[in-house]
Amino acid sequence: MLKDFTVANLLDLNETIAAELFEGKTYPWEVLPEISDFIMKLGPTLNPSEYECKDGNVWIAKSAKIAPTAYINGPAIIGKDAEVRHCAFIRGNAIVGEGSVVGNSTELKNVVIFNKVQVPHYNYVGDSVLGYKSHMGAGSICSNVKSDKKLVVVKDSDEKIETGLKKFGAMLGDHVEVGCGSVLNPGTVIGRNTNIYPLSPVRGCIPADSIYKNAAEIIKKN
Questions:
Q1: Which terminus of the chain is less hemmed in, N or C, by CB atoms within 10 Å?
Q2: For residues 193 and 211, is the Cβ–Cβ distance under 8 A?
Q3: For residue 149, with 0-12 CB atoms within 10 Å meaning exposed, 13-18 middle and 19 or more buried, which class applies?
Q4: Dist CA 200 CA 183 (whole Å)
Q5: Predicted model pTM
Q6: Strand, coil or helix: what is 62?
Q7: Which tens digits make up the pLDDT trace of 177-220?
Q8: 86 catalytic, yes or no?
Q9: pLDDT per position as a tens digit, 144-159
């Protein structure tokens, strides 16, 4: 049921600096067109004793660790105690939560990364929302454009929602674990506390508290 994949059922808004962005939204993908404007509104209000504003509308917490080889294009906010590692590529419109890890050669674009999220090794995360303490294994990616370039539709069994979005990666609920080498196809939504097996091609809505082995084998956790 698509009602299981609302903001309220997927995400703990106490675990993001961007809680206001989600106010009034039913589904998390509704924030995607508004991330850039929200950062531009929020950035100047951040405490200058805690955040430093860099050229290009990039606000970085003074407690964050940024590798000298990382590239951060604005607008962007890098939260307290976050770590941006060697050769990370943040293309813009990105909010990286407190205590999160953006790893070596990971690319972010138009995303909200909640607190304590890990995208630590060779990940691509575009036009996506990653919930609190979610983790993407090495080489797993969020594919954000359909091969036929049509608008993304979110589907769960016979239910579907026309998003009106050409670019839409994945929505991960809190505590989701994505196995190494997996591809989350455009419009994928994964419920809280779900594990995705390595090397999985995933599409559609995956229920909370599940283990995804393949499209035909999704097991409820005990």
A1: C
A2: no
A3: exposed
A4: 6
A5: 0.96
A6: coil
A7: 999 999 999 999 999 999 999 999 999 999 999 999 999 999 99
A8: no
A9: 999 999 999 999 988 9
Give the whole-angstrom CA distance, residue 47 versus residue 196: 38
Catalytic annotation, pick one of 86, 121, 135, 175: 121
Burial 37-55 (b: 16+ CB within 10 A, else e): ebbeebbeebeeeebeeee
Which candidate, 134, 108, 151, 100, places its Cα nearest to that of 208?
Answer: 134
β 76-78/94-96 pair status? parallel
Which residues neighbour 65 within 8 Å (Cβ) at sequence distance 6 or greater? 82, 83, 84
The backbone torsions φ and ψ at residue 10, rounded to the nearest 5 degrees and listed phi first, read: -105, -35
* Alpha-carbon span 118 to 131, nearest angstrom: 10
